[in-house]
Specification:
Helix content: 25-40%
Strand order of the largest sheet: 15-16-17-14-13-18-19
CATH superfamily of the largest domain: Aldehyde Dehydrogenase, Chain A, domain 1
CATH architecture of the largest domain: 3-Layer(aba) Sandwich
Structural class: alpha/beta
Largest sheet: 7 strands, mixed
CATH topology of the largest domain: Aldehyde Dehydrogenase, Chain A, domain 1
Number of helices: 15
Bound molecules: ligand TXE
Number of strands: 21
Radius of gyration: 23 Å
CATH class of the largest domain: Alpha Beta
């Protein structure tokens, strides 16, 4: 069992109390016991990050790149171990867990390169004898607050980017899945990061939120949309810079001219992959009437073939729901959809497995419409509704009739339709003939408000949030 301590100012520290995590595939197994941090712990971590800032921002560039690369190497080397821990603590399948750990390794390698690749700019000035130099400086101390659904990838893409651009960090991972963050802290320590440049505080964000905002220069948060709104409000008095990656209610459109197999595979992966617990997962499947019946018949067959079970079993396609609050939330949406008149075509019930866990059959509703709660609020589970529409115009209108705008997808073989959708979609991500979830590490990731706020993550786009621009004039005419 993991004993989770805080990592503050280069030291592992006990906290006054501990909180256990339970394996969602096996409720009889405690995975770890983790520090519940106090406000004083968070303040110490922020103070350590502040002290470490001058040293880290002027740290030798090659040494900083080497350090991040070493962490990436360690993540690759331990991907199976981390993937297994992920499966035990979060409930994703072992394949998904190893995939996520590998992604974290790739992210560190990318940002190792970014340390030396990130450019500034030079402009000729309109003033004789002057140059203008634009440089991108670290913002300062970053609080990174992360959710339970990607316990290693999301901390990796916030921490690696923050450190690469010369910031110091306090990471507060989800209280449901902190195990991987501890491994990440160990790796940063072993790679030789100067003390205080990275700090880990565990526990419930509700108790630490205001401290983590007030004591930092910037807060990068991924989680629920209402929490994001709260953080934005809490940051207003200090004007702490805020980046929010929030929920999605992502539409996947299937047009009459779609390749049926491609459409079904993309819809199934986007909807039920990783137990539907991806902010980019498909939750509304919008299908034009000509292909509707054939598509639905195939999709129902596809979902029937998915095996729900213990995350570590080799034949499991879909692991359990990650925790009890999320399981209960899914069931509430299912009951509401039924009472709203949606037709249950698959799932909708808890599933028995060889162990006691939060197993939910992948669920599909038919004959839904966009006004139902099922189609308006983020479920964040293996649950989706099909909405039948007349034509492409109506499909676009329905897709956009939603407050959230993170990802969106379309299945079509018509280039004109694909291009029109790419242009007209209001989402931050548009996926054509491929699932709504799943973006490479080197390209911008995120949505428009209220799905996202304050600059994109990943790739070179993350520099927008993790750096501050300085415009400098140099009068060399005096020389
Ligand atoms: O999120 P929270 P939860 C959505 C999804 C899910 C719901 C709840 O719909 O059902 O959120 O999940 C910390 N100040 N997503 O409860 O509460 C908290 O400790 C500062 C979407 O996990 O937002 C954790 O570290 N921090 C999503 C983190 O915020 C606070 C991913 C996320 O917790 C805080 C996960 C506060 N006041 C869930 N309150 C996505 N967009 O990918 C909580 N936290």
């Amino acid at each position: 069992m993991i004993k989770g301590r805080n990592f503050i100012d280069g030291q592992w520290r006990e906290a006054a109390s501990l909180l256990p995590t339970i394996n969602p595939s096996d409720l009889d197994e405690t995975v770890g016991e983790y520090a519940v941090s106090s406000v004083a712990d968070a303040e110490e971590a922020l103070a350590a990050a502040r002290r470490a800032l001058p040293g880290w921002r002027s740290y030798n560039t090659q040494a900083r790149a080497d350090l991040l690369r070493k962490v990436g190497d360690a993540l690759y080397a331990r991907a199976e171990e981390i993937g297994t821990l992920l499966s035990r603590e979060e409930g994703k399948t072992l394949k998904e867990g190893i995939g996520e750990a590998t992604r974290a390794a790739q992210v560190f390698h990318f940002y190792a390169g970014e340390v030396v690749r990130h450019p500034g700019q030079w402009y000729p000035s309109l003033r004789d004898g002057h140059n203008v130099i634009i440089s991108y400086e670290p913002v300062g101390v970053i609080s990174a607050i992360t959710p339970w659904n990607f316990p290693i990838a999301i901390p990796a893409w916030k921490v690696a980017a923050a450190l690469a651009y010369g910031n110091t960090v306090v990471l507060k991972p989800s209280e449901f899945t902190p195990g991987c963050a501890i491994i990440l802290a160990e790796m940063l320590e072993q790679a030789g990061l100067p003390k205080g440049a990275f700090n880990l505080v565990l526990g419930d964000g509700r108790a630490l939120g205001q401290t983590l905002i007030d004591g930092a220069d910037a807060v990068s948060f991924t989680g629920a949309t209402p929490t994001g709104r709260k953080i934005l409000q809490m940051a207003a008095p200090t004007m702490t810079k805020v980046q929010l990656e929030l929920g999605g209610k992502n539409p996947f459109i299937v047009l009459d001219d779609a390749d049926l197999d491609v459409a079904v595979a993309a819809a199934a992966q986007g909807t039920w992959g990783q137990t539907g617990q991806r902010c980019t997962g498909s939750e509304r499947i919008i299908v034009t009437k000509g292909i509707h019946d054939a598509f639905v018949e195939k999709l129902v067959k596809a979902v029937a073939g998915l095996k729900v079970g213990h995350a570590l079993d080799a034949d499991t396609d879909i692991g359990p729901v990650a925790n009890k609050p999320q399981f209960d939330k899914n069931m509430t949406f299912i009951e509401k959809a039924k009472s709203d008149g949606a037709e249950l075509a698959a799932g909708g019930v808890a599933v028995e497995a060889r162990t006691r866990g939060y197993f939910l059959a992948p669920t599909l509703f038919l004959n839904t419409h966009n006004e139902m709660a099922l189609n308006r609020e983020e479920v964040f589970g293996p649950v989706a509704g099909v909405i039948k529409v007349e034509d492409f115009d109506e499909a676009i209108a329905v897709a956009k009739d939603c407050e959230l705008a993170l990802s969106s997808g379309i299945a079509t073989t018509n280039l004109k339709h694909a291009e029109r959708y790419r242009r007209e979609s209001n989402a931050g991500l548009v996926m054509v003939n491929t699932p709504t979830a799943g973006v490479d590490y080197h390209v911008p990731f995120g949505g428009r408000a209220p799905s996202g706020y304050g600059g994109r993550e990943q790739g070179t786009a993350s520099a927008e949030f993790f750096t501050e621009i300085k415009t400098a004039y140099i009068n060399h005419g005096v020389l």
